[in-house]
Design goal:
Elements lengths: L1 H38 L8 H5 L2 H24 L24 H4 L6 H5 L1 H8 L1 H31 L7 H4 L3 H27 L22
Helix pairs in contact: 3-7, 3-9
């Protein structure tokens, strides 16, 4: 157990924090939903299990997932060719780095199998982090649209209007207001990290330059 903690503590802690916060969101979201039901005089209480399958819960969940995956996927991709002087989140302004090396000439016996396979498999693997994150974004956005359409239709029917399909929901201002307010906050946080890391430090973190290094030294070296 000590070895597992030493080697995987970052993913263990962040995964547990995620689950605790998701549980908190579910409980508080259920309370909000029930308060809304009571305000509209909608009879019997909905069970907590029923709430977990509702559009209200999944719309909010996927809405946040999509913005995180969009931000991370695009940031990984943008850092392959864009630079920020002085930031550890950027590659150096000039020259090649280890991450730029051609895997076809750098293959080692213990390299991942796509490196040895080559061809299209290697081409996909070279970009697999970005592709995986953007696929997760598309799946989350799809979930947001489907769950959002269900919740929006529920509200529409409460006011005597017809429900909408997922495709129709794509044309509503509500969907894009929810998405865009999350997307802008994600890019604002990335902007803040990139710029603040030029001048500020966190000793021991790979997201920071060494404390004694000058402000406008770019990258970690």
């Amino acid at each position: 157990m000590r070895r597992i903690w030493r080697e995987y503590s970052l993913s263990i802690v962040t995964g547990l924090v995620f689950l605790v916060i998701l549980a908190g969101q579910a409980v508080t979201g259920y309370n909000v939903s029930e308060e809304d039901r009571q305000d509209h005089g909608q009879g019997e209480r909905e069970s907590f299990v029923e709430y977990l399958g509702s559009g209200h819960f999944w719309e909010a969940t996927f809405e946040n997932f999509e913005s995180e995956f969009l931000q991370m996927g695009s940031f990984v991709w943008l850092t392959t060719f864009l630079r920020q002087k002085g930031s550890p989140e950027s590659k150096k302004l000039d020259g090649k780095e280890d991450v730029d090396a051609d895997p076809r000439t750098e293959a080692k016996p213990d390299s991942p199998w796509p490196v040895h396979r080559g061809g299209l498999i290697l081409k996909l693997y070279e970009n697999s982090v970005t592709l995986a994150l953007l696929l997760l974004f598309l799946l989350s956005f799809t979930g947001h649209v489907i769950a959002g359409a269900a919740e929006y239709s529920k509200e529409q029917m409460q006011h005597g209007s017809p429900p909408v399909s997922a495709v129709e929901y794509l044309g509503t201002s509500q969907l894009w207001f929810q998405s865009l307010q999350n997307w802008q906050s994600e890019y604002m946080s990335v902007f803040a990290l990139v710029v603040l890391s030029v001048f500020l430090r966190q000793r021991g973190s790979p997201e920071s330059k060494p404390v004694a290094h000058p402000h406008f030294e770019t990258g970690h070296a």
